[in-house]
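Tutorial handout. Part one gives the primary structure; part two gives the three-dimensional structure as tokens.
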Amino acid sequence: MAYIKYGRNALRQIIEETNLHSSDRMMQPLLYVGQGVRHRKLEVILTTNIEKLGKAGETVKVAPGHFRNHLMPKLLAVPNIDKYAYLIREQHKIFPPEEEKEEVKVVKVSEEDKLKEYEKAAKRLDNARLVLRRLIDIEKFRTRSTKDEPIELQSPVTKDEIVAEVARQLCVQIAPENLHLASPLSTVGEYEVPLRIPKSIPLPAGKVSWMLNVKVRTK
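Part two.
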């Protein structure tokens, strides 16, 4: 943008200070546009880089109306005649155009890096505790024979619900196949749900298998 700003100012300065003939000064760019055939493309010189049109200093063909209404009022382009070609050359001497280079780096993730990420996620699951709050079955709660009898839930906790809560609470994405849950959790309490982790991920010292601690509480 700095180049566009100062480039246009330089163009205005050169137009004012250049020793051109009076006849050249009287000739307006809009009148030059009207000299061509109505539907003929007009050759213009770009004063700045324009997307999908060209770079500064290039000669391109545009519709006369587009040049008259958009390019010329903003000094984005000038007619391709000797007078303006000279001005553009002088402008580039004062403010040389700079090429904008955008380098896109493609980062390749190795299998070793992936394995480290999986191991990190597995350890996070193994060390965390997932807490779920559920409504209890009031009728069965009132008819319990002893206080030690498990408190049943209105609706059991399914494997899909555990997967969703792992993503929400622990920010770890797992699939239902990663959980070994024989049946839904139907009572309040603490559970150890076995995790199905690829054998390529080493277990921590003293561990026989990966486990997810789940605590189901009442609301």
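Part three, for discussion. The two ends are 59 Å apart (CA to CA). The helical segments are 2-17, 22-26, 29-33, 64-71, 82-94, 111-127, 138-142, 159-170.
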